[in-house]
Predict the structure of Methyltransferase domain-containing protein.
Amino acid sequence: MAKTYEPDAAIELYDEVNIDYEHVYGNNQLKIRCIDKIISMLRPGSSQALDVGCGTGVPIAQMLARAGLKVVGIDISPKMVSLAAERVKEGSFIVADLAHWEPDTPFDAVLVMFCHLQMNYATVHAMFYKYACALSPNGLLAVGQCPADYYIQTKAEAAAYDETRTYAERCNIPFWGKPSQDFAMSLVGQRRFLESMGLEIVDEVVDVFRPNNPTFDPEYQQYIIARRPGERPISTPQPLPKEEQS
Ligand SMILES: C[S@@+](CC[C@H](N)C(=O)[O-])C[C@H]1O[C@@H](n2cnc3c(N)ncnc32)[C@H](O)[C@@H]1O
């Protein structure tokens, strides 16, 4: 059965997790390396970055702002947005659902990291397409996720994948110390999905991150930076959601 998109569940979860998210996940060297790499490819002073699902703003928005980039952050959790605004004074933070918020200016970088776990594929598909279309020429789209490959191992578990093995709407990824039924793409599925929009992958790291809480399992994480080549039009990502296939 297709998963429904329930933004209220995300608000409830992240309002409760609050500042603890930063204590447990803030010092993530894989994420920090990815942001450093993005900063090295942008122009401080003139580049504008969008942090989608910004959380407390640490480390993503904070590193981008400290590097001299103009940062806009959006998040559905009012508590997360007020923490981000306190921490990153130079940034501009908005309480908004990433599925509905419409960018009204182009961005040189859009970062979508671990904010789409609670979503279904139709929402993820529309969200990536919208933010890829908001990239300026040669703009960068960065994605951080827990790839499904490590959590779907048996033949029975593989039934969670769509028929192209691009994504699983219900994947048993550990989050906040508990197994969940969250959205994830396969390693190759995430790459092909970005390439299907006409983006070029310029950087990728897959490694293990250990949360700063001994009771939480280590997480496999994938970070990809993809570039829009010049002004190339963005194509509709593939595969289409089942609802849109005729
Ligand atoms: C796991 S945290 C990740 C924070 C940050 N991106 C990072 O990687 O450090 C996920 C964040 O996404 C936000 N989020 C979840 N669903 C959202 C939605 N529909 N619209 C906007 N933000 C959302 C949550 O409130 C939370 O702050």
Remarks:
- Residues 5 and 119 are 5 Å apart (CA to CA).
- DSSP finds seven helices and eleven strands in the chain.
- The longest strand covers residues 135-145.
- Residues 7-146+189-230 form a domain with the Rossmann fold fold (CATH 3.40.50.150).
